[in-house]
Each structure stands twice: as structure tokens, then as C-alpha cells.
Amino acid sequence: MLPLLANAEPGQVWLADRLYCTLPVMEACEQVQTSFVIRQQAKHPRLIQEGEWQEPVPVETGTVREQIIQVRGGYQCRRVELTLHSPTDSGDTSLMFWSNLPESVTAPQIAELYRRRWSIEGMFQRLEAILESEIETLGSPKAALLGFATAVLAYNVLAVLKRSVEQAHRDTQPKGWEASIYHLAVQVRSGYEGMQIALPSEHLPVVPLEKLAQRLLELARNIQPKQVAKSPRGPKVPKPKTWVQGTAVHAHVSTDRVIKAEKRKDLERDGPYGESLFQTPKGTKGLLLRTALAGSGPFAPGSIRAQRLRFASLHLLPLCLAAPDGRCAPTPGSIPPLSLPTSPVTQKQDQKQAS
């Protein structure tokens, strides 16, 4: 902010947020004879002396009072406190401002000046949301600056139209009625292309500057107030905070553990070899046969049982594919029992049992 204050002129009033409540900023304003209204922050310059508070004055949003304060170097300024009827969105019930404006400017006027600064922040939000001033595809700084300047110029035009509509319908609408810049932008955007076709720009009438305001009021009376009325948002409904155990909030979720837990559940439900080879559901038939043909998973080579399962699945493949309901039921004799691989241990056990 200090480089900007180098171009400040006497008689100006600079409004700044709490981040600029520093002694160098205030001293720079004094050097160029510029007035300021800055919101007080928690770590403000150390106060050497504080005067007595004056009697609070009621205003629209609460009460206002002020006092004289002195900081390091003998510098004095006014501190204005605004106590609000209802807290702000951040929960603040009182706001404090430092200012060097003369006594002819009252404390309620100082508070009102800073309240207007909030409308400037709202303007930048509308520039981005309604007029799309921040175009992400503009990589060049000069192009981005040109796009933003164009949006600001369009916003000034919309502000004039907004004020014209409000002034034209002031007598027929209730007190506090406002026109919405968003709805005005939608009206202009939706009707501009058709207007260019029906009435090209070379056929538009030229209105002298001294009659421009009267012409705008005449055109504004043709607008339906309900179409451009601003819809103020109601108060936010506080959501009840439910109690959650601290261990559940700060618990670390491991993806590897979740996957292993799901595998254990599948193993407990289906067994080590999944669904039965002789009763294969339609959804898992293809996966089971693919693993059998590839020799992976439970059909990996190594154990005699795995070799038997893979050999059996090769014989069951035509039956499973031909089954209309997706379930295969082998018929007697469809799998040659003597062709299954057997281990020497199994052959010995069979001979002992036979003897």
C-alpha cells in the first residue's frame, strides 16, 4: 500500500482493511496530507495514551462512540467503535476504526464510510460471478488486465441502468426495493443479440448527453420490476453440531487395510477357491474361467489340487458357455476321471485303501 500512497493527493480519503493498521501507513498518509479510515486489528500499534470515550450515538446498525488515542512518536488520531445489534458473519459484535478525519466529520459518518467499503468488496465478487472478469484462459498479464478493465466498464454501465430502474419505479415499489445487477445482466444478454438483428447499431438513435438521464428513465419505466427485483438472502440456519468421538475423527484410514479386509470377507464367504466350479453364477463365470485358463489365482501351478481344478475347468468351459441360465451342471462321463493329474502320494493312499 505504501507505493500507492506515494501517488495520493491532499483531500482524499483512503479506506483500508485491518491488515493496513500499521504506523508506516498512517505516517505516509500524514506526509501527503491524505485522510484515512482503517479498521483496527488485534496487533495494532502500541497505544501511549487513550482518551475518554464519548457518549454512544445510536445508528441504523447499532451504536457508535469515539475517543482520542496517541501512538508512538506523539501521533494522535480518532478511534471509533461501532457496536452492532447483530454479529457479522465472522461473529464480531463490535468494530473499531482509526481515522485522522477532522472533527467536522462525525463518528457515525466515519462508520458509514467504512460500511461502504464492504459494498466495494461485493462489487468485485459480482464482477467475477456475473461479468466473468477473471478469465482463466488469459495467460498474458496484459490480456487479463484488459479483460478486467472491460468488466469494470461494463459494471459501470450496469450500475447506471440499475439506478435508473430503481429511480423509475421508486413510487410504485416498497421502501428499500432494489434492482438486481445479475437479473439486469441476464436481460441484456438474452435480448442483445435479437436487438442487433432487428435494429442494427447504425440505426440506433443518438441521444444528447444532457438528455441521456431523461431517456434512461423513460426506457426504465418499460421494465417489469418483478423481473429484475433483487432477492435478499435470508438468515443462515445454524446447523446443530453432533458429537463425534475423537478417535473416529483423527483415525487414519489405510487403503491397503481396507482392501485386505474385503479380501478376508470374500475368503470367509466363498472359501479359498471362490465359487464352486460345478455351480458357477453368471456374474462370476467369466472371471473364474479366465483365471483357470490363465493358470493364476487359485489355479496357479504348484499343487496337485490346483492342477485338477484347472483341468476340470477346461472340460467345463463348453458346458458353462452353453448353459442358458449361466450355471453349469456337468453330466456323468463329461470329465474323464482317469485324465486328471494325480500325485504319487495320492496313488499310494488309494492303493492302501483298496487293500
Quick synopsis:
The protein has 355 residues and is α+β, with helices and mostly antiparallel strands. The protein has helices at residues 2-5, 23-31, 107-129, 141-168, 181-198, 212-220, 225-228, 246-249, 255-270, 282-294, 304-322, 344-354; strands at 13-16, 35-39, 47-50, 57-58, 62-71, 76-84, 94-99. Strands 1, 2, 3, 4, 5, 6 and 7 form a seven-stranded mixed sheet that branches.
Oligomer: single chain
Residue share in helices?
40-55%
Structural class: alpha+beta
Based on Cα principal axes, name the global outline: extended
Instruction: Round the Cα radius of gyration to an integer and report it.
Output: 40 Å
Main beta sheet strand tally, sense and closure:
7 strands, mixed
What value does the average pLDDT take? 76
DSSP summary, beta strand count: 7
Query: Helix segment count?
Result: 12
- Which strand-content bin applies to the residues? 5-15%
The SSE string, one letter per element, is HEHEEEEEEHHHHHHHHHH
Measured distance between first and last alpha carbons:
103 Å
Low-confidence stretches: 273-283, 328-355
